[in-house]
Automatic annotation (TrEMBL), chain A:
Keyword Metal-binding attached: yes
Protein name: Small RNA 2'-O-methyltransferase
Keyword RNA-binding (UniProt): yes
EC main group: transferase
Cellular component terms per the entry's GO annotation: cytoplasm; nucleus
Catalytic activity: small RNA 3'-end nucleotide + S-adenosyl-L-methionine = small RNA 3'-end 2'-O-methylnucleotide + S-adenosyl-L-homocysteine + H(+)
EC number: 2.1.1.386
GO molecular function, one term: RNA binding
Domain of life assignment: Eukaryota
Organism: Dromaius novaehollandiae (Emu)
UniProtKB/TrEMBL annotation, chain B:
Region Disordered: start-end pairs: 1-20
Cofactor: Mg(2+)
The protein's name: Piwi-like protein 1
Protein source organism: Dromaius novaehollandiae (Emu)
UniProt domain PAZ: residue ranges: 256-367
Residue ranges annotated for the Piwi domain, each copy included: 531-823
PROSITE patterns reported in the protein's UniProt record: PAZ (PS50821), PIWI (PS50822)
Positions in coiled-coil regions: none
Family that this chain belongs to: Belongs to the argonaute family. Piwi subfamily.
Gene of this entry: PIWIL1
GO cellular component terms, semicolon-separated: cytoplasm
PANTHER family for this protein: EUKARYOTIC TRANSLATION INITIATION FACTOR 2C
Gene3D superfamilies reported for this sequence: 3.40.50.2300, paz domain (2.170.260.10), Ribonuclease H-like superfamily/Ribonuclease H (3.30.420.10)
Record keywords, A-Z: Cytoplasm, Developmental protein, Differentiation, Endonuclease, Hydrolase, Magnesium, Meiosis, Metal-binding, Methylation, Nuclease, RNA-binding, RNA-mediated gene silencing, Translation regulation
Molecular function as annotated in GO: endonuclease activity; hydrolase activity; metal ion binding; piRNA binding
Length: 379, 837
């Protein structure tokens, strides 16, 4: 290595965006590509990665595990649903859970995941924990995909101020050969394939040190049916749940019903208003220009029988007023795209709103009262 | 934190072809919630907001509770006791819970230093908490100040931590204070800890309050959603530190700003759309979809759209679409929508951050627009859910305390700090002062004090001063001829018993257009006209505004507008004609009733503000001063605050004119002036005391060398979270009108009291808080309380007791009319009449 080049770089290595963000982005990209439904982050610390992942619409289950309860708790509330999530519940369901525990212990709550990430985790493990790690993650949890990142010690000379390890809590830092041989042996043992990559590219002229952070992406080679997954696995819990948030979702009947009832009532109001406005403007025309009305009358006289018949047919679809009540056929409401999308079928619509919305006696129309507002204003 | 992109767009956003005004220094920014109050030390807390203008209620809010304003000590005669004596005792409970700490409880305050200096707060905490074995699990830290429930071994402790870059950092933790439970710093600390507890209970913070999202009430008719929640604060009250908590309802709307824009677009003509939309949205609070932050809409940038770009903190340029996609996975579907602009309220350190740019599609509306508030049906539907009876309210408040007592992690946190809450509502004894007799037409009327209403009792009694309707106009559109005529006939029926002499009105038919109304007014109003009555066909504001503006400024004549629909029901028209007759009489300078006011030579002043959110945040203050002993005649003026001008300059001018008018009426000057000041926002008390009161004193001094009247300044606050429950018959009920509370829940550093003056038909009654911030009157607290209560009987638009002293309500009415409709100062020739009623 050319000593001058090295000296030139030691002072100026700076990653934009910062390296930790690049690592998270790497995971986000991976999630975007493979669309896993269940994702767990081991060593989730202050839950930043989990927080970023909750916005990924493919994920339905998010779990975090960390050995330090306090660091998880400090920011865990940002994993809670937001007001907006309640205002317009999403189609997908999402449950976020945080567990307090060690990656050296097996707990059934980590079974059946599509992706498990261990970002800058293994270098914090004591030797005894590191020994158990492969069996727990690859043998027991056995997700479809595992991502492990760890510092590449070959890069350390380029980092300012790093003399030994990058962080005082690191128990070791591996070079690429060490990491890869560890990873390959795990892959062999647990029937995974592994590919190596990284983030934080070395500066020009120093390419041979490799990425600042080295990453192994493991993919399980055998397919696992859900039965085999839970077969002969222990069911005793080893972790403590510290946080759980179930996001409102339209998959939940309660939220779906709320959403449908809201949409139906609102749609009915819109139809009622436009119908009444229409009738009112006709009425006003009536007052202002008697001549025109006369002709209208003549017209209707002539076609009275024809019109009535047509009216009867249209009634199945068109709203009408009877006394103080506007009848809005459910078929009409079902034809609105939002209602349609929410319910899917007409039967489902009927089922969801029964008992929640006032319907006509035969259940075919929504009834809305036309009662006048009685506001009183004098000034 | 990745969720915080703070960046300033330079100049004009790209993706626009035409040269249009720039988004300016647009930036997307999201404040992270930190401990804002910790940033100031104990001494700065009370001194940090000198230059704040009293104009806008929104202002910069640092100290919602006006801590550190100690006005009582300067008022000699209440230093010992500020309690009144009259009335009968009543057992009350209130929504307060005592906070208790274990004996000899002390909070240890430490200062934490880093060498080399570390800037980021998160890094500072991470480095410090590498030493958890030293610090312990229980702590509160804002990056500089550390609070612990325990004392560290040494006064100065030094520890070393290493950053991720391998840098060694020396951390020095120095004990700076041992705080007793009542220290102001401790109060802030309690509030921070309490917010932690609320979060633990999974309540969502929106604005200042916390809400429970799991049990929402949806009102689909209006696309509204109501979240039940709590407003809470922990403060030092008269004898103890207490948690005051009340039920709060957050009205959210299940539609985005973009949805709203679309439905509005379908309702109004194309060319008016932008104006109407701006008017509707500006000042509203929106909630973003992707994080839990609320913003006030200050502007709409019609020239920008989501394709515009801005510069991120790292210097890279990104479009809003890409930013939201990348950061929050939020798809923006409408690429042509304008953007909302929100000015930051708070400084971050020494720099004022640039405005935040928000995408309508990603923002939900919260709260109610003015239009919605005026929608009778909507408010009715809403009140079913938000208006709680005393019993319901007490139960809901109790539920919060139950949560606290039952939640394990909450209890542990409290235990770790050595704190606990009482599980019962605070209860004590209040007083109900005697009901006032209403004097009208030489007779004194009694009425049921529980209803606080005498409209039935005084019906048909002659008024104190009835103004004749000799020459007056009645203007109507063709379609409303019948109702106009019905009004006229009914006025003929009801006026004689009041003592009002009435001729037939000059009836004028008018086209239903604004210009037509104005032309009719110009042609028919003469200097002899007593009053103009207009029957309007709809509640459309433009005609009303035009009529009021013309008749209050260009051609000063009292006017009365009535909406035709109000008169359309034969069964109620007589009652309505009665009310209108009374109102018209007041507008012409008549007097209705009075109560016994024992204090002589007293001028009472009421001040309230209206904040015009639309036309450039201009504030308008209404100023109303009594002119006679019976408080039946009033002098009314208003102040339009111009940019950079303080309201008080105008108020001084008002006070001077009021004194001159008083002199004209009474041939001497008042020996006492009592100012009821409403419209003071949370955290503005200091400014009022330090700036406005001295100016009022100056103004009185300037009247004459020997003139030295006694002055009292009383701050009136309607929006308080305090509620009282009368415990009678085993069920909590509203306390009766006339209930006075001046112990327990008042503040030791103030001369303050609560009065429940009004009666409510449904829901829980809200007491009004009165804070006497200046008083050279020497009057006993009991007399001030009684006088205040008497004044609540004197509002002529309501035959009953109201929530605030009449001059405040008059001032409110005046400021509202000017702010909403007239937008300039009314003609001074009207100032001796209640023309704005």
């Amino acid at each position: 290595m050319d000593k001058n080049v090295q000296e030139r770089f030691t002072g100026v290595i700076k990653f934009t965006p910062p390296l930790y963000k690049q690592r998270y982005q790497f995971i986000k990209d991976l999630v975007g590509k493979y669309k896993p439904k269940k994702v767990a982050d081991l060593g989730c610390a202050d839950c930043t990665l989990l927080w970023m992942l909750k916005f990924c619409s493919c994920i339905e289950v998010l779990a975090g595990l960390d050995i330090c309860e306090n660091v998880m708790k400090e920011k865990m509330h940002r994993l809670s649903p937001l007001p907006g999530d309640y205002l317009q519940p999403a189609e997908r369901s999402l449950t976020v859970t945080l567990h307090h525990g060690s990656v050296a212990h097996k707990d059934p709550c980590m079974l059946g995941f599509d992706l498990i990430t261990c970002i800058e985790l293994i270098e914090h493990l004591e030797e005894s924990e590191l020994e158990k790690f492969p069996e727990v993650v690859f043998g027991f949890m056995a997700p479809t995909m595992v991502v492990i990142s760890t510092p590449n010690s070959e890069f350390n000379p380029l980092l300012p101020g790093v003399t030994f390890f990058r962080h005082p809590d690191h128990k070791f830092e591996w070079n690429r050969a060490e990491f890869q041989s560890w990873a390959l042996s795990i892959a062999r043992c647990y029937d995974y394939s592994v590919e190596f990559t990284g983030v934080g590219p070395p500066p020009t002229g120093m390419e041979d040190v490799g990425f600042c952070t080295q990453i192994g992406v493991f993919v399980r080679k055998y397919s696992q049916t859900s039965e085999t997954a839970h077969f002969e696995k222990p069911t005793k819990a080893a972790y403590k749940t510290v946080f759980k948030a179930v996001y409102p979702s339209l998959k939940d009947e309660k939220y779906l019903q709320n959403a449908v009832v809201s949409e139906v009532v609102f749609t009915a109001q819109v139809i009622k208003r436009s119908l009444l406005d229409h009738l009112k403007s006709e009425h006003e025309e009536y007052n202002d220009s008697p001549v025109e009305i006369k002709s209208k009358f003549q017209h209707s006289k002539n076609c009275v029988s024809e019109d009535l018949e047509k009216l009867a047919v249209e009634r199945s679809m068109e709203p009408f007023v009877n006394g103080n009540v506007v009848y809005i056929p459910l078929t009409k409401i079902f034809s609105f795209s939002k209602v349609n999308q929410l319910c899917g079928t007409f039967e489902k619509l009927r089922k969801l709103i029964t008992g929640k919305v006032t319907l006509s006696s035969d259940g075919s129309a929504v009834m809305v009262s036309t009662e006048h507002e009685n506001e009183e204003e004098e000034n | 934190m990745t969720g915080r992109a703070r960046a300033r767009a330079r100049g004009r956003p790209r993706g626009q072809e035409t040269a249009v005004p720039p988004v300016g220094a647009a930036s997307v920014l999201c404040h992270s919630y930190s401990f804002p109050i910790f940033k100031t030390t104990e001494f700065q807390i009370s001194a940090g907001f000198q230059e704040m203008s009293l104009g806008d209620r929104g202002g910069r809010r640092r100290d919602f509770h006006d801590l550190g304003v100690n006005t009582r000590q300067a008022i000699e005669h209440v230093r010992e006791s500020k309690t009144g004596s009259s009335g009968i005792m009543i057992r009350l409970s209130t929504n307060y819970f005592r906070l208790t700490s274990r004996p000899q409880w002390v909070l240890y305050q430490y200062h934490v230093d880093y060498n080399p200096q570390m800037e980021a707060r998160r890094l500072r905490s991470a480095l410090l908490f590498q030493h958890e074995e030293l610090i312990g699990r229980t702590h509160a830290f804002d990056g500089t100040i550390l609070f612990l429930p325990k004392k560290l071994g040494n006064k100065v402790t030094e520890v070393f931590s290493r950053t991720r870059n391998g840098e060694d950092v020396k951390i020095t933790v120095t004990l700076t204070n041992e705080l007793p439970p009542t220290s102001p710093t401790c109060l802030q600390f309690y509030n921070i800890i309490f917010r932690r507890l609320l979060k633990m209970m999974n309540l969502q913070q929106i604005g200042r309050n916390y809400y429970n999202p799991s049990d929402p009430v949806s009102i689909p008719n209006h696309r509204l959603m109501v979240w039940p929640g709590f407003t809470t604060s922990i403060l030092q009250y008269e004898k103890s530190i207490m948690l005051c908590t009340d039920v709060s309802h957050k009205v959210l709307r299940s539609e985005t700003v973009l949805d709203f824009m679309y439905s509005l677009y379908n309702q109004v003509e194309e060319q008016r759309f932008r104006d109407v939309c701006t008017k509707e949205l500006i000042g509203l609070i929106v909630l973003t979809k992707y994080n839990n932050k609320t913003y006030r809409v200050d502007d709409i940038d019609w020239d920008a759209n989501p394709k515009c770009t801005f510069i991120k903190a790292d210097g890279s340029e990104i479009s809003y679409i890409d930013y939201y996609k990348m950061q929050y996975n939020q798809e923006i579907t409408d690429l042509n929508q304008p953007v909302l602009v929100s000015q930051p309220r708070r400084r971050r350190g020494s720099i004022m951050p640039g405005p935040a740019v928000l995408i309508p599609e990603l923002c939900y509306l919260t709260g109610l627009t003015e239009k919605m508030r005026n929608d009778f049906n909507m408010m009715k539907d809403l009140s079913i859910h938000t208006r709680l009876t005393p019993e319901q309210r007490q139960r809901e408040v109790g539920r919060l305390i139950d949560y606290i007592q039952k939640d394990d992690s909450v209890q542990r946190e409290l235990r770790d700090w050595g704190l606990s809450f009482d599980s019962n509502l605070l209860s004590f004894t209040g007083r109900v002062v005697q009901a006032e007799k209403i004097q009208q037409g030489g007779r004194a009327f009694d009425y049921n004090p529980h209803f606080a209403d005498w409209s039935k009792e005084t019906r048909g009694a002659p008024l104190i001063n009835a103004k004749p309707l000799d020459n007056w106009l009645l203007i109507y559109t063709r379609r409303n001829y019948d109702v106009a005529n019905a009004l006229l006939q009914n006025l003929f029926k009801v006026t004689p018993s009041m003592g009002i002499r009435m001729n037939k009105a000059i009836m004028i038919e008018v086209d239903d257009r604004t210009e037509a109304y104005l032309r009719v007014l110009q042609q028919n109003v003469t200097s002899d006209t007593n009053i103009v009555v207009c029957v309007l066909s709809s509640s459309r504001k433009d005609k009303y505004d035009a009529i009021k503006k013309y008749l209050c400024t260009d051609c000063p004549i009292p006017s009365q507008c009535v909406i035709a629909r109000t008169l359309s029901k034969p069964q109620t028209i007589m009652a309505i004609a009665t009310k209108i007759a009374l109102q018209m009489n007041c507008k012409m300078g008549g007097e209705l009733w009075t109560v016994d006011i024992p204090l002589k030579q007293l001028m009472v002043v009421g001040i309230d503000c209206y904040h015009d959110t639309v036309s450039g945040k201009r504030s308008i203050a209404g100023f109303v001063a009594s002119l006679n002993q019976g408080m039946t005649r009033w002098f009314s003026r208003c102040v339009l605050q111009d940019r950079g001008q303080e309201l008080v300059d105008g108020l001084k001018a008002c006070l001077q004119t009021a004194l001159r008018d008083w002199f004209k009426w009474n041939k001497f000057l008042p020996s006492r002036v009592m100012v009821y000041r409403d419209g003071v926002g949370d955290g503005q008390l200091k400014t009022l005391v330090n700036y406005e009161v001295p100016q009022l004193l100056d103004c009185l001094k300037s009247v004459g060398k020997d003139y030295n009247p006694r002055l009292s300044v009383i701050v009136v606050k309607k929006r308080v979270n305090t509620r009282f429950f009368a415990q009678s018959g085993g069920r909590p009920q509203n306390p009766p009108p006339g209930t006075v509370v001046d112990i327990e829940v008042t503040r030791p550093e103030w001369y303050d009291f609560f009065i429940v003056s009004q009666a409510v038909k449904s829901g829980s009654v809200a007491p009004t808080h009165y804070n006497v911030v200046y008083d050279s009157s020497g009057l006993k607290p009991d007399h001030v309380q009684r006088l205040t209560y008497k004044l609540c009987h004197m509002y002529y638009n309501w035959s009953g007791v109201i929530r605030v002293p009449a001059p405040c309500q008059y001032a409110h009415k005046l400021a509202f009319l000017v702010g909403e409709s007239i937008h300039k100062e009314p003609n001074l020739s009207l100032s001796d009449r209640l023309y704005y009623l």
